[in-house]
Amino acid sequence: MAIWIKPIPRGPQSQPTQGRKTTMHRQALIVGGGIGGLCAAICLRLTGWDVQVFEQAPEITEIGAGLQISPNGVKILEHIGVMERLEPAVFEPEAIEIRMGVSGRPILYLPMKGVAAQRWGARYLQVHRADLITALSARLDALQPGAMQTGCPVRGYAPCKDGAEVILANGRRIQADLVIGADGIHSRIRHQMLGTDAPRFTGNYAWRALVPAAQLGALAPPPSGCIWAGPKKHAVTTYVRGGALVNFVGIVEQRTWREESWSRTGDRQEALADFNGWAPPLLAILEQAEVLHKWALFDRAPLPKWQDGHVMLLGDAAHPMLPSMAQGAVQSLEDGYHLARVLGAAVGPDIVAACARHYAQRIDRSSRVQRVSAQNLQLFHKSSRLAQLMAYAPIWLAGQLTPSLVHRRSDWLYGAPVPPLNI
Ligand SMILES: Cc1cc2nc3c(=O)[nH]c(=O)nc-3n(C[C@H](O)[C@H](O)[C@H](O)COP(=O)(O)OP(=O)(O)OC[C@H]3O[C@@H](n4cnc5c(N)ncnc54)[C@H](O)[C@@H]3O)c2cc1C
């Protein structure tokens, strides 16, 4: 299913400002209007910056995709005034579960509803990516009308006196105090800053599908974030649109990726063959989904820097990761929020120093998330009975005897403090 978000019309206010204003009116130019770029724009705007977001897509097209937003992300959405807009679209799962993909036998049932807010200060939520983007864009537009321009691809950047400039695809150059590359895994800004090496294929591709929950009837998956583990593949089922839609992600190992395009519509028979013999709720989704999307999963090793003077990277441009921790979007929210906090009232050279502090304070955490995401994938893909028993029996036992110990393992991630922005 394709969801179309109406482009924000170009009006007089949405024209990029030529030249820079005084340092009292600090300007930031953000390349990419995804979750990371929009969050950064909102946070900077809230802390007194004038912002412009350049999004290459003429309109933001969203293929069926659910996101889990853990409490560390929800806290940020609350602080920046996005949560109230998003509220009608979210789903709060009862638990995070791990099950055997074929038999459906439970390995872990970790309660989340009620527990997450109490333990980590915010709920654990599931949401459609299009709904999150819509809520972020609406918030940004309310703070600074016309701040995002669609159909505006960026070619690169260049340093300039006391700042940097963005070079649009049409050759136009616009100066600012700060340029942010939030342009995703295939980031042009990152290429220019760090070289043209391509992101690495992780040896996995992902199926994604959405099906109305009512249509699945008794075969609807449990109302949780449910991970279905199996040899060399796993699936995740979640709910979005307030619980009206079931979201499916199926991750399958494959040595090489030969498709020229990194995203394509997949073949139903191929998806059913991938999950042949798996639990009935999963097969029902694959049988009933209107469209199945299939694309390759890429990541990168942690980067030695995210900064070139007044130019900063964030989100997938800085630290792309496997989705097996459901943290890519959440980490991009953390990036934008943290950067705005660290920048505070900085002007001129202090902006460069603040960006360096941002990297120094964020790199360990985002690298750890990248690392654990890759480890989780190995955990969910155990092949032999023995490997499954050795990996899953202790998890099952811990979940039965001391669920709070299992919750505690996520304290470093979900429970990280989110101090208010200095607005
Ligand atoms: C199968 C799957 C499941 C996932 N599940 C989760 C989950 O449950 N929870 C979670 O937190 N994360 C999840 N993620 C990760 C998440 O989707 C990404 O980490 C997140 O979207 C990154 O946001 P971003 O803003 O950095 O980049 P993007 O979302 O890629 O946005 C970049 C934007 O920049 C634009 N752009 C690119 N180049 C240019 C240019 N030259 N000029 C102008 N604009 C440009 C693009 O059009 C795009 O809009 C999942 C990912 C996958 C693949």
UniProtKB/TrEMBL annotation:
The chain crosses the membrane at residues 28-49. GO terms for molecular function: FAD binding; monooxygenase activity. Keywords: FAD, Flavoprotein, Membrane, Monooxygenase, Oxidoreductase, Transmembrane, Transmembrane helix. Pfam families: FAD_binding_3. Residues 1-20 are annotated as: Disordered. It comes from the Bacteria. Residues 27-347 form the FAD-binding domain. The keyword Heme does not apply. Its EC number is 1.14.13.-. InterPro entries: FAD-bd (IPR002938), FAD-dep_Monooxygenase_BioMet (IPR050493), FAD/NAD-bd_sf (IPR036188). Its cofactor is FAD. The keyword Acetylation does not apply. This is 6-hydroxynicotinate 3-monooxygenase. It comes from Planktomarina temperata RCA23.
